[in-house]
TrEMBL record:
Cofactors named for this entry: Mg(2+)
Keywords: Magnesium, Metal-binding, Nucleotide-binding, Nucleotidyltransferase, RNA-binding, Transferase, tRNA processing, tRNA-binding
The protein's name: tRNA nucleotidyltransferase
NCBIfam families: HDIG
Entry-linked InterPro entries: HD/PDEase_dom, HD_domain, HDIG_dom, NT_sf, PolA_pol_head_dom, PolyA_RNA-bd, tRNA_CCA-adding_enzyme
Superkingdom, taxonomy of origin: Bacteria
HD domain ranges (all copies): 211-323
Organism: Deinococcus seoulensis
Protein family per UniProt: Belongs to the tRNA nucleotidyltransferase/poly(A) polymerase family.
Classification via Pfam families: HD, PolyA_pol, PolyA_pol_RNAbd
CDD domains: HDc
Transmembrane spans: none
């Protein structure tokens, strides 16, 4: 039933199956046995079971409804109001097969959309992931849901549910178009309003789009080059300039526009946005770090390239992908072939340094050795000295324990303790 039936009729392999059966518990346990998966109850009181099978395939099993047709007519869209009987007969009470052929996304009813407002986000997601187009009446109903949500006439879905729809959309090759569609439908203001702050914020210089359009183009450029980009990198591309609207300044004499510190403001905003959407802490920190680092200057020589790699190793190669997407999305009057070549050379230096030293060199002195050498107790100064030594080793300035001891002594002499 539902999406699995839709995908089967489209000739697309399904990974999420909904089954209506007389005995969900027994069927789940048998399915787990034959598939090599694991069965567990989702809601024992209602008899809902799930089987997680190999290959990321998921089966949800529920009791067979008294009226299967009525159950399907409570679904969101006609292409999801489809069922397939065990003998292969198709149940299509809402005309979903015709909509599949026409690549049309049509609601089963206006009431169904309003019964679960998350279906408005699902409409945008299905357009992006299925390549369908909302028919006019359904689009009007989705816009109405968005307006009523904003006005408090409908309850907002749980943030986790909105996040999951947004992640499904961002995971699509057409993620940038999907985000633009959220804006067109009035849903982006309910999801990530900070991104909308870039609408109409002109930039000039290297940029030919406003901040909002540039952010979407950067996401598009990222996926054109890295279609397998992880979700954190997709978020970073979308949010990399989210701080620009709040840092925009105009020089009163020259009229020149600037966005000084937008990467730092953007890093903080990104952390707040993703925390609000309840992403895991590690993901929040990574996206924030990428946004905060995307304006770093690229190295002009090999030594600077080794330092760049040493200091940002944990963000590579994602940081380079973000910086390239940002650069390729900017084609304003200041952009030139010469500037693009210079940028490319900086990338090549970083990649060469990363290839030369794919992992950090082992420490030449540990904390205990540094404390003994300097005659100091445990504390922050030990960590500062260790980090300075690690960078010197990464740059090839120190290669032996004797050299490391000489380096630490010299460092201590020129860096007096406070």
């Amino acid at each position: 039933m539902g999406g699995a039936a839709r995908d089967w009729l489209r000739g697309v392999p399904a990974k999420d199956f909904d089954w209506a059966v007389p005995d969900p518990a027994g069927a789940a346990q048998e399915l787990a046995r034959v598939s090599g998966g694991a069965a567990f109850p989702l809601d024992e009181e209602r008899g809902y079971w799930r089987v997680s099978a190999p290959g990321g395939v998921q089966h949800d099993l529920v009791p067979l409804p008294v009226d299967v047709t009525a159950d399907l007519l409570r679904r969101d869209f006609t292409v999801n109001a489809l069922g397939v009987w065990a003998d292969g007969r198709v149940l299509d009470p809402a005309g979903g097969r015709a909509d599949l052929r026409s690549r049309r996304l049509r609601m089963v009813s206006r009431e169904n959309l309003r019964a679960d407002p998350l279906r408005a986000w699902r409409a945008a997601r299905f357009e992006g992931t299925l390549g369908f187009r909302l028919e006019a009446g359904t689009e009007a109903a989705v816009r109405e849901v968005a307006l009523d949500l904003g006005a408090g006439r409908l309850p907002m879905p749980a943030r986790e549910r909105v996040r999951d729809e947004l992640h499904a959309l961002l995971g699509s090759p057409e993620a940038a178009r999907g985000v633009a569609r959220l804006e067109e439908l009035g849903l982006l203001v309910l999801t990530v309003p900070e991104v909308r702050e870039g609408l109409g914020v002109a930039q000039g210089g290297f940029h030919h789009l406003d901040v909002f359009g540039h952010s979407l183009e950067a996401l598009h450029q990222l996926l054109a080059r890295r279609p397998d980009a992880p979700l954190t990198l997709r978020w970073a591309a979308l949010l990399h300039d989210v701080g620009k609207a709040r840092t925009r300044a105009v020089d009163p004499v020259t009229g020149r526009v600037s966005f000084h510190g937008h990467e730092r403001v953007g890093a903080d905003l990104s952390a707040g946005i993703l925390t609000r959407l309840k992403l895991p802490g590690d993901d929040v920190r990574r996206v924030s770090a990428l946004v905060g680092a995307h304006m770093l200057p690229l190295p002009a020589n090999e030594r600077e390239a080794r330092r760049f790699v040493h200091r940002r190793r944990d963000l590579l190669p994602d940081l380079l992908s973000l910086m390239l997407a940002d650069r390729e999305a900017a084609r304003g009057p200041s952009s030139s072939e010469a500037s693009r070549r210079a940028y490319a050379r900086g990338f090549e230096r970083v990649l060469a340094a990363l290839e030369e030293q794919p992992t950090p060199p082992p420490p030449l002195l540990d904390g205990q050795a540094i404390m003994a050498l300097l005659g100091i107790p445990p504390g922050p100064r030990v960590g500062v000295a260790a980090r300075a030594l690690a960078e010197a080793a990464a740059l090839g300035e120190v290669t032996t324990p004797d050299g490391a001891r000489a380096f630490v002594r010299a460092w201590a002499e020129r860096t007096p303790s406070s």
